[in-house]
Amino acid sequence: MDFARQTNRMLHEEHLATIALLGRVEQTLGRGRADDPGAPMLAKTFADALERELTRHFAFEENELFPRLTAAGEGDIAGLLLEEHETIRSVAGELLPLLKAAAQGSLAAGDRDALRQGVPEIVERLIAHIQKESMALLPVLDDLLDEDTDRELAFAYASA
Questions:
Q1: Among 13, 98, 92, which Cα is nearest to 52's?
Q2: pLDDT grade, residue 36 (50/70/90)?
Q3: Torsion over CA of 69, 93, 128 and 111, rounded to 10 degrees?
Q4: Are 92 and 28 a contacting pair, CB within 8 Å?
Q5: Per the domain annotation, does 85 fall within a domain?
């Protein structure tokens, strides 16, 4: 996708990187390959990325973009994306301790099934969420943001 605004491009590039990571995570951790030699590093990478997504990325959208959408009459999409953020946070809250244990090589045998079941759920939710943002949020921002606001938002996001 080709976006006119820096903010959109930054978010889109981040989405692409997340989707690539989710593919690797699903192939290894979501298929019960926690004993794969690369699984601990992948679990750490995913836990770190998920925490950044839940804090930096979601907070930026919720604090900077969703209010602008709502003010421009696009409150429905902002509300839907916010609901998804809350659901993803809930699922991630259960999964993060398992990912961190897997990253340290200390995942209990009984938790392997929980990790194997939790990974596909979060992957599915994140991909669906990214698709909605790519199709609904980012194109609207191209029209909604002026150059100065875009520059300010892009700088703020890059600095966060």
A1: 92
A2: confident
A3: 180
A4: no
A5: yes
